[in-house]
Amino acid sequence: MGMITPEMLMRAYAMGVFPMSEHRNDPEIFWVDPKRRGVLPIQDFHISRSLAKRIRQGGFTVTLNKEFEGVLDGCADREDTWINGEIRSLYIALHQKSQAHSLEVWSDEGALVGGVYGVTLGAAFFGESMFSRATDASKIALAFLTAHLDQCGFQLFDTQFLTKHLQSLGAKELSRDDYHDQLAQAVIKAANIEAYS
Questions:
Q1: Which SS3 state, helix, strand or coil, does residue 165 take?
Q2: Rounded distance, CA 93 to CA 192, Å?
Q3: Tens digits of per-residue pLDDT, 28-87?
Q4: Which residues share a beta bridge with 116?
Q5: 8 A C-beta contact, residue 85 and residue 19
Q6: Which three-class secondary structure state does DSSP give residue 190?
Q7: Residue pair 27/2 in contact by the 8 Å Cβ criterion
Q8: Among 48, 100, 98, 47, which residue's Cα sits nearest to residue 71?
Q9: pTM here?
């Protein structure tokens, strides 16, 4: 496929496709455009009673863009990951251009216990991956991120695929055509994830 540049990657997002590799040691990157697309409704994010209680209990701090590489590496730190070396470098390059962002969850002891990262384009946020090293840490990250995206004027939170975990938070599946319609409307609007950081 040749070298993918950050600019090519952003053009791919604008067209509704995203990159993956088979595993961390595979140099090949392929483009994915799923028939069914997962999205989190930004205004209708579902916080269960147990998650609301967990958030009220505290014991954690949430930050934005404080430890992007740490979140990236947390997401790749599993048996089977699609984040190979080239994909990692591409997202770091996008982060340096303020086009990729992370939200971190820290324990009171100062350990990074969870997080989520993704790419922004217009008023669309493309969630790439999340990780959790403590109970509910990735759910807490998504709850804070979704509220933050809402506050900043985002319209589309793309989760790529629909998992049971995301479904429990209110994620839905769209057909490819419906997703492309929503994407086309979102990318031409302006939203700044750092407006309230």
A1: helix
A2: 18
A3: 778 888 899 999 999 888 888 999 999 999 999 999 999 999 999 998 887 777 777 888
A4: 103, 130
A5: no
A6: coil
A7: no
A8: 100
A9: 0.92
